[in-house]
């Protein structure tokens, strides 16, 4: 085979005349280029380690310190107050005047270096103190406290240098452990509107008993962990919420992201795959070289022009990462990266795969179902059938790959005579597919459909949705606006003629491997999921902001109203909030169902006056914003209670209060997908390039999963999921109008027009 010959750098034969040496210059050139790339990576990593290691200072600042020290010594002054002399005494004895001068110079440089390192530590400590200040988030627009006025220029000064991706990591504060009395008090306040008076009295008694007895003991252990660990929540959250779950991760844990709503850049499946894969690998290169700008939180109108860095730790395991199954717990494994081809060459390779009509090997076609079913059978089969031989080699290739690509034989998107129904089927396809044509264990799987539509399915344990959304935004924008396509829809560029054929993986799957049992479990789960996706175009954040109301608060209160009208009552509501203001932060829960939101909805439904409803709505939105800010700044409820529960399990003690809290169902689970890189999309000149966002499955069997993305000024995209097996939940209901209350019902979401116009 041609590729086999190209892999040989030289050949030699022994003849009577001597040794006949034949060199392959092409192969040697590739060896040389490979070595150059390897050394460039090493040099780049060393350089990046130095730059981020001295941040917020710069490596060149050492020169200024050294010159300053030497200048003062030249002026017969000792800035070290005798330390340079002490250092000089520990250097080798001087024999000549020249050596004495040299020792003085060396001593001065050693002192300069020590002084420089001390200044770096001081600057880093100051930056950490500044980033620990979060009161600015609670201040009203235009009302800045004196403390914040001092804080703003200091933050700008210490973060003015252009940072690398991980430059801020060592300066981010650690997540604080809230006082146990504060957490218990906030918990009781959050469940008050959901409980009757006797139920609330009973829960209050349990909470008070826990706080005064077992709670303090558990809290001491938790504070000890917070002193030792970087983040007292994240490792336990990853292990016990994700990796120790023994049920299927498909639908229950993994989530999806969609393509553009109105536009498909090309209808050529292989070409779309070529550009998408290239864009993803370009992003990986930015991550590896730390060229990606760290995500920073803009402080908006409160502190104009000031940005606060967010933790970037989740980016580390984005690529070449797989969740491998175990009997008791899964493990996240991460490998080093590999090279990439050009978009046109990738398209050519993908097309060769699509043109290959050879049948699958026995057991190969539905092998991916192992990753979609229960974890214990998958772990047992992995150990039995994939621990050696060709199966292990083929599985290693999948698990070590940067990501997984599915070339789907279906067409998806908002198209045809039933665009709404097709959009729903598009969501279900990305969420679970055929249950065997995705590799759900990979950090993320990219799906390229027959008509060129794309999407992804992401595993949840290694990172949260905003990290994946950032990657997907970059991918869509790079694919459409930078890489582009030819007039006939193919990738730009040429194909190397000697490019070898793609190599098919080899499997030897025995009939008794029981892949069908995992597929049956996954198929039953997939068939039960009801998905509905719809773009809401009546208005968006533009009109909401004119009312001086937070768009997120407006939507969350609308969801509360929708659920109340759907089920006739209120429920425990989960809204995901990030804690990435802290090092290795993941998420916290915003309990959106509050006393204030319930009071507004009750008043609205009982026919209170417009003025009273407006007042109550304003209180509810302000309360929601405050809850969100508290969650972001480490004063949430649920992660603290979760960690206390983990400590109680380690100690072997039972807490009726914690057991009841951790078993409460989240019948309304919600999440906003943030748009983080609007600079990549020019919606004025390209208004059709609108992202659909993504969604996830319902958390409770009798509840809803609701994801939404606020796009531009005039649109909100919603993803609603529930289960067919529950007769009380329906993801898609018809659109209806009511002239009396003047509200729109779309899906299960109600937007009250009169309040949008009145505020």
Automatic annotation (TrEMBL):
<dbReference type="GO" id="GO:0016020">
    <property type="term" value="C:membrane"/>
</dbReference>
<feature type="transmembrane region" description="Helical">
    <location>
        <begin position="54"/>
        <end position="75"/>
    </location>
</feature>
<protein>
    <submittedName>
        <fullName>Carnitine palmitoyltransferase 1A2b</fullName>
    </submittedName>
</protein>
<keyword id="KW-0808">Transferase</keyword>
<dbReference type="Pfam" id="PF16484">
    <property type="entry name" value="CPT_N"/>
</dbReference>
<keyword id="KW-0472">Membrane</keyword>
<feature type="transmembrane region" description="Helical">
    <location>
        <begin position="105"/>
        <end position="127"/>
    </location>
</feature>
<keyword id="KW-1133">Transmembrane helix</keyword>
<keyword id="KW-0012">Acyltransferase</keyword>
<dbReference type="GO" id="GO:0004095">
    <property type="term" value="F:carnitine O-palmitoyltransferase activity"/>
</dbReference>
<dbReference type="InterPro" id="IPR000542">
    <property type="entry name" value="Carn_acyl_trans"/>
</dbReference>
<dbReference type="InterPro" id="IPR042231">
    <property type="entry name" value="Cho/carn_acyl_trans_2"/>
</dbReference>
<comment type="similarity">
    <text>Belongs to the carnitine/choline acetyltransferase family.</text>
</comment>
<dbReference type="InterPro" id="IPR023213">
    <property type="entry name" value="CAT-like_dom_sf"/>
</dbReference>
<dbReference type="InterPro" id="IPR032476">
    <property type="entry name" value="CPT_N"/>
</dbReference>
<dbReference type="GO" id="GO:0005739">
    <property type="term" value="C:mitochondrion"/>
</dbReference>
<keyword id="KW-0812">Transmembrane</keyword>
<dbReference type="GO" id="GO:0006635">
    <property type="term" value="P:fatty acid beta-oxidation"/>
</dbReference>
<dbReference type="Pfam" id="PF00755">
    <property type="entry name" value="Carn_acyltransf"/>
</dbReference>
<dbReference type="GO" id="GO:0009437">
    <property type="term" value="P:carnitine metabolic process"/>
</dbReference>
<dbReference type="InterPro" id="IPR039551">
    <property type="entry name" value="Cho/carn_acyl_trans"/>
</dbReference>
<keyword id="KW-0276">Fatty acid metabolism</keyword>
<feature type="domain" description="Choline/carnitine acyltransferase">
    <location>
        <begin position="175"/>
        <end position="729"/>
    </location>
</feature>
<feature type="active site" description="Proton acceptor">
    <location>
        <position position="460"/>
    </location>
</feature>
<keyword id="KW-0443">Lipid metabolism</keyword>
<feature type="domain" description="Carnitine O-palmitoyltransferase N-terminal">
    <location>
        <begin position="1"/>
        <end position="47"/>
    </location>
</feature>
């Amino acid at each position: 085979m041609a590729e086999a010959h190209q892999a040989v750098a030289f050949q030699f034969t022994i003849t009577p005349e001597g040794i006949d040496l034949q060199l392959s210059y092409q192969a040697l050139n590739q060896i040389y280029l490979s070595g150059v790339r390897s050394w460039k990576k090493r040099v780049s990593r060393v350089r990046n380690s130095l730059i981020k290691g001295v941040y917020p200072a710069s490596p060149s600042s050492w020169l200024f310190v050294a010159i300053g020290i030497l200048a003062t010594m030249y002026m017969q002054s000792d800035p070290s107050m005798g330390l340079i002399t002490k250092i000089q005494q520990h250097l080798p004895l001087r024999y000549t005047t020249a050596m004495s001068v040299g020792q003085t110079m060396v001593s001065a440089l050693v002192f300069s270096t020590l002084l420089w390192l001390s200044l770096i530590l001081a600057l880093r400590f100051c930056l950490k103190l500044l980033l620990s200040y979060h009161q600015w988030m609670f201040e009203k627009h235009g009302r800045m406290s004196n403390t914040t006025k001092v804080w703003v220029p200091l933050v700008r000064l210490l973060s003015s240098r252009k940072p690398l991706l991980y430059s801020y990591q060592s300066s981010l504060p650690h997540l604080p452990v809230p006082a146990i009395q504060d957490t218990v008090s906030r918990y009781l306040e959050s469940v008050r509107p959901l409980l009757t008076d006797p139920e609330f009295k009973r829960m209050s008694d349990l909470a008070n008993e826990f706080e005064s007895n077992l709670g303090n003991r558990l809290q001491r252990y938790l504070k000890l962990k917070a002193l030792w660990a970087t983040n007292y929540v994240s490792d336990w959250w990853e292990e016990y919420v994700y990796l120790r779950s023994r049920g299927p991760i498909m639908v229950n844990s993994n989530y999806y992201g969609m393509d553009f709503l109105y536009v498909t850049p090309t209808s050529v499946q292989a070409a779309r795959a070529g550009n998408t894969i290239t864009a993803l690998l370009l992003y990986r290169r930015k991550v590896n070289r730390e060229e990606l700008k760290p995500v920073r939180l803009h402080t908006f109108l409160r502190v104009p022009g000031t940005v606060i860095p967010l933790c970037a730790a989740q980016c580390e395991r984005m690529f070449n990462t797989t969740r491998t199954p175990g009997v008791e717990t899964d493990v996240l494994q991460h490998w080093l990266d590999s090279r990439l081809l050009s978009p046109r060459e990738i398209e050519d390779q993908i097309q060769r795969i699509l043109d290959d009509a050879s049948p699958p090997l026995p057991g190969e076609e539905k092998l991916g179902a192992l990753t979609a079913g229960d974890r214990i059978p998958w772990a047992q089969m992995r150990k039995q059938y994939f621990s050696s031989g060709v199966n292990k080699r083929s599985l290693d290739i999948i698990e070590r790959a940067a990501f997984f690509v599915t070339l789907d034989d279906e067409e998806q998107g908002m198209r045809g005579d039933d665009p709404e129904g097709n959009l729903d089927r598009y969501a279900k396809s990305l969420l679970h597919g055929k249950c065997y044509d995705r590799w759900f264990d990979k950090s993320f799987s990219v799906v390229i459909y027959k008509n060129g539509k794309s999407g992804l399915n992401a595993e949840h344990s290694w990172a949260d949705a905003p990290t994946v959304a950032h990657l997907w935004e970059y991918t869509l924008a790079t694919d459409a606006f930078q890489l582009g396509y030819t007039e006939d829809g193919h990738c730009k560029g040429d194909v190397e003629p000697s490019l070898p054929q793609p190599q098919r993986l080899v499997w030897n799957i025995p009939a008794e491997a029981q892949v069908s049992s995992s597929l049956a479990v996954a198929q039953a789960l997939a068939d039960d999921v009801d998905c509905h996706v719809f773009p809401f175009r009546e208005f968006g954040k533009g009109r909401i902001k004119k009312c001086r109301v937070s768009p997120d608060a407006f939507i969350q209160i609308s969801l509360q109203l929708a659920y109340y009208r759907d089920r006739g009552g209120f429920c425990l509501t989960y809204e995901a909030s990030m804690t990435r203001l802290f090092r290795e932060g993941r998420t916290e829960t915003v309990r959106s169902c509050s006393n204030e939101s319930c009071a507004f909805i009750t008043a609205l439904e009982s026919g209170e006056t417009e003025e009273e409803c407006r007042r109550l709505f304003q209180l509810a939105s302000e309360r929601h914003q405050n809850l969100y800010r508290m969650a972001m700044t480490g004063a949430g409820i649920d992660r603290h209670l979760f960690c206390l529960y983990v400590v109680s399990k380690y100690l072997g003690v039972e807490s009726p209060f914690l057991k009841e809290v951790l078993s409460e169902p989240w019948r309304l689970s919600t999440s906003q997908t943030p748009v983080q890189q609007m600079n990549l999309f020019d919606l004025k000149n390209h208004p059709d390039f609108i992202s659909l966002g993504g969604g996830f499955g319902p958390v409770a069997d009798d509840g809803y999963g609701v994801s939404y993305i606020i796009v531009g000024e005039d649109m909100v995209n919603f993803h609603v999921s529930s289960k067919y097996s529950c007769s009380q939940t329906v993801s898609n209901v018809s659109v209806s109008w009511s002239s009396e209350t003047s509200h729109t019902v779309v899906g299960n979401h109600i937007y009250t027009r009169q309040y949008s116009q009145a505020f």
